[in-house]
Every structure is written in C-alpha cells, then in structure tokens.
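Hi D.,

Good news: the full-assembly prediction came through. Inputs first.
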Amino acid sequence: MNFAAALARIDTAAVTQAPLLSVRSLQLHLPSSPQPLRLVDGVSFDLRRGETLGLVGESGSGKTLTALSIMRLLEPPLSGCVHGEVALDGVELMSLPESEMSALRGRALSMVFQEPMTSLNPVMTVGQQIAEPSMRHLGLGAAAAGARAEEMLRLVGIPDPARVAASHPHLLSGGMRQRAMIAMAIACRPALLVADEPTTALDVTVQAQILELLGELQRELGSAILLITHDLAVIAENAHRVAVMYAGRIVEEAPVDLLFAGARHPYSRGLLASIPRIERARLDILPEIPGVVPGPGERPAGCSFALRCARASARCHAEVPPLAAAAPGRRLACWNPLDG
Amino acid sequence: MSKPAAASGRVWRRFLHHRIACVGGIVVALLLSAALFAPVLAPRDPTFLDTSVRFLAPFADSRFLLGTDELGRDTLSRLLHGGRVSLTVGLVAMATTVLTGAVIGITAGYLGSLTDTLLMRFVDTMLCFPQVFLLLVVAAFVPPTLLSISLVIGLTSWMEVSRIVRAEILNLKEQDFVAAARALGASRARIMFRELLPNAAAPILVAATLKVASAVLMESYISYLGYGVQPPLASWGNMLTNAQGYFNTVPWLAVLPGVAITATVMGFNFLGDGLRDALDPRLRMGP
Ligand SMILES: Nc1ncnc2c1ncn2[C@@H]1O[C@H](COP(=O)(O)OP(=O)(O)O)[C@@H](O)[C@H]1O
Ligand SMILES: [Mg+2]
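Then the structure:
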C-alpha cells in the first residue's frame, strides 16, 4: 500500500476538516477498595474521516475497554462507570438513549472483534448474519439484503460469495470468518470502524491480507478506522497516526513515520525496541522494559511508567504528566522525554 | 432453523447409535400415527354402547379385538381415540410449558439484575407447591375442557424449563457473537429470540420430549381425581379411572390404558435421552 500518498492527502485534509470522532477525557473507574480500578484513565483523541488511528499498547492497557466505551457496548456494572465525552460527527454519544445508540451501531459506527471463531453465531448462515444490518438499518427486504450480503462478501475478497453466504460459520477458516465479520461491519458503510485486534487470532499471511483489505475498504468507503493492536508492526504499515497507551492512558501520539523515526516517550521507545524488524542501531533504545505494568488497582500517584523508567525523576513519581502538544500533530505525556 | 449439514449428519449418526433412543423414537412415531389416524384405524365408534357385550376379554371375540368395557364399548377403539386425546393434551401442554418456560428463562437470563431476581423468586415460589395441588386449585375455577386441561397442565409445569433455559442463556450471552450482534445494532429482543434462543434449541428440545411424557401422566392423575377429560370422551387417564372399580375381576381394562401410558412415557423419555446425547453442545459447536 502506498501510505506516503495517503498520508499526504490526509495531512492536507486535516487542516480543513473537523474530526469525525472526538474523544475527550474518557474514563472508566470501577469502584473498589482500597482504590478504584482505573481501567481507562482520561483518554482523549481525535480521528478524521478516511484516517486510521492505531491504538497500541501491551495487553491489559485498556484498549478494548476504550473501544467498548466508545461503542457503548459495556454491560453493567462497567457501563455505569464510564465518564467523558465521545462525539461522532458532532453527535454526543454518551448521552444518547440506548434505542438511538443502537440505531447508530452497525450504521454510523461498527466494530470488528478479535476472535473470528466465536464472533459469528454458530446456528445462522453467514449470509443471514451479513444481511441483518442491512435489513435493520436500510430497511431492505430479505431477498435484497441477501443479494447485498453476497455483494459485501465479494467486496471483502471472497471468491465464491454464494457458497460462503449459504454456509454456517464452522465450515469457514479463520481468515474467511474475519472477512465475513468485516463484511457485516461495513454492510451499511459506517463512517467509523473500530477494529479491535482484528488479526491477532490469524496466521501471519492471513493477517497481512486482512489488514490490506481494511486499507482498501477505507479508500473505497472513506471510513475512519480505529485500529487497536498490541503489535507495533501492524501499526507501522496500516495506520496514519498512532496513539500509544499505557496503563489506561495515552502516553504519546504522533504520525506513524515520526513515531517510528523517533519516539519521545521512554515507554514508546521501549515498545519500538521490542519489534525485531526495526533497525536498532538507529534508535537510542531501551533493549527491553524491565518490570510489569501496574494493575488497574495499583497505579502510583505520578506517572504509571515511572517505576519501570530509567529516566524517572522525583517529579515523575509525584505528579501525573499531562498529555500535551509537543509539536504540531504530536502529543506527549512525559516529564523527561527523549529527543525526537 | 437449519443445522449445518455436516453437524446435523453427526447428530443423526450419534442418535442412531443410541439403541434405546431409536426404540423410543419408533414407539413415539407409532403412537403418534395411531393417534393421528385413529378415526380410520378404530374399528368402531368409541362411544357406542352395547350392553349385550359387556366385559368381553381381549381376543375372545373377533369383532372386539381387545375386548369391551363395563358399558360394552370397544376397548381398541377407545384406546385409539383416547390416545388422540391424551397425546393432544401432552403436546399442547408441552408447547405451553416450553413457550412459557423459554420466554421467562430467556428474559431472566439475558436481562439479569432485578428482572432475573424477581422472575427466579417467582419460579421458586411456584415450585414450593406440588403440581397436583396447583392443578386442583385451578381446576376448581376452570371447567375441564381439552384445551383448559392442557393449558393448566402446561402453566403449572414450566418452571424447570425456565431454569434450564436461563442457565443456558447465562452461558451463551457471554459469547462474542452476542457482543458482535450488539455492535451491529441488534435490539435486546432480537438478540434474545433470534441470536440466543436458537442456540439453546438442544436443551429445550430435550426438555420438550420429557414434558410430553409428564403431561400425559399428569392428565391421568387428574382424571383419577375426577378433574381430567370428562366422559364420554375417552382418554387413557379416564379409561384407567373407570377401570379401577373392576380391577379384581377384569384387570385388562386397567392394564391396556396402563400399557399405553407407560409406552408413551418411556418412549418420550428414551427419545429425550437420545436427543440429549446426540445434541451434546460440546460436540456440536466444534469446527
Ligand atoms: N469486566 C471487567 N471488570 C474488571 N476489570 C476488567 C474487566 N474487563 C477488563 N478488565 C481489566 O481492565 C484492564 C484493561 O483491559 P482491556 O481493555 O481488555 O485491555 P487490552 O484490550 O488493552 O488488552 C485489564 O487489566 C483487565 O483485567
Ligand atoms: Mg484487548
């Protein structure tokens, strides 16, 4: 894929366009003793039409909960603990009644999950499942929706859509199922697609195909994609911008090429170092990050990364660094950042 | 809802391997067809009285293959027509039970929290009373017709089904495909009845077969207490009740409907067991 060209287009568009998705101070604190579990701890970011934002971080950093909060898919008691603002195309989602929110899900915004093996209903055919959103949101009849389902399957690169549409999910491979999931998610051409580890459960070759497919669909439909992954290599090739998440917070945000050329947060730097393909000589890197992520109930008073950080000072242990603009298009939450 | 071709083949093979289940299936098929074709198969009018031929023994007279009762009615014809009535009660009661139990179980299981607590306490309360007691209380207010008897039996025996369905739904609702359906805008009702219910079909089907058997049995209990299907309409239950006065002298009058009831109960129970094994979800969900 030619991301340089795509990036250039996005960057010029960025100046004129209001963001499609705007997340402000998203917080999910679950009451608990001695201190609340800070599962998501003040996440803010913007996402523009046609843009892919990679949300990257180790497992347990709160990426999935961030996505589910945006989609308003959390169940009680978690659903009652979400605070902050999420605006999609100017519509504030957090205060919408559930009926209006579910009318938007699958139409204005939709989501692809990690596990293609279990995300499809085992007793319905793939075609029926892809047809559902079109019947629900676009008011198509069963026959028209069925035809559209086959069309969507062809669009996601399935060579024999009629056969696949008539199959039950257990007859399909993981890659095929994930394509079917994507077909369901984009059937009503949503403006925002949230993809939570869409390729983690797949083989490497299939992974690349699925990511390429997402890129193609984005160019065709102009959707914004929030691409969630723990794998920076996936971000490198498939996102325009990247937000690095650590212990429930975004610690650094930058255009992909700038981050890969020189991450400024010590955690991002360490994360980059863990990708074997990146030329280590180019980076003044931490060979690995010592220690483990503090659990959601044991966050220190200051920066959550301070305990593992070689550059940590007294201030880092005492005060949470805010996520502040470090350069145009770049944000950073660090008291002692590295040079870019 | 059509099952995946390969999976349904597997289910079918497992069922056929289950000897007893096949016997159950055959018995049930025979009983159902006998009931269905009773008007054609029955040699005589089951209500026709002929006091000149009372208490004939089975096989004693070629006109009355299974003998006659205290009013000279043909026992074979009464068994066939009575089976029609008893099985109708069984099937209608089963449908009522399954429908009520499934709706309550799925609502409690999927909505959870207060709804679940209230519904399950209601189930506990209903289960505190013996079913026969509930039946007799209702029977005191409702005249016994075929339909009312079936509904009353069904409405006093759905509690187990609701528990089975609730347990199944509690498991299923945590699965990813439910979150995926919600992410595409499916409503609660749609998820409950279109996504979850078909996935709970196996235990519901098993419970349904067992409920037919228990409803047939229940109809004969309440016939015995005088609240069942009313004469002259024959049911296996009221044939058995009539026979009790002559049990010392003409035991076959009780034995024949007794055998029919036993065959029905065992047939449906075996069928249910076979289905339970054949539809085992651990084997069903695999790739
Ligand atoms: N329902 C829940 N109740 C309490 N803690 C949860 C719940 N779901 C997830 N968590 C915790 O929240 C943290 C973030 O989870 P998640 O968003 O799934 O991380 P990620 O997707 O980045 O791997 C983890 O520590 C996880 O254990
Ligand atoms: Mg996750």
